[in-house]
Amino acid sequence: MGRFNRPTFLLLRNKIMEQLFTKKEVAGYLKVSERTITRLITETEVRIFHIGRQVRIPVSSVNKLLKGPMSVEEQDRILTDIMEI
User: Fold this and answer.
1) What is the mean pLDDT of the chain?
2) Distance CA 51, CA 36 (A)
3) 65, burial (CB in 10 Å: exposed 0-12, middle 13-18, buried 19+)
4) Which of 57, 62, 78, 84 is least surrounded by CB atoms within 10 angstroms?
């Protein structure tokens, strides 16, 4: 099955079921300060969710923080994936 033949509901289901963390939890896991997490989120432009005034960080974003800055090609691929949904 090709990339464009995947059912949309499976993509949405995977994104909704992704585990979310607070900045404090991510900072503890990475053994850095919450301020460092805020800076990394801004610099690497990872996906986060705002629930009211609180910030939640999905597991996929934590993995991207561990990898470091994204290349332009990777950013384009992510945007393309988002637009497909």
Assistant:
1) 75
2) 21
3) buried
4) 84
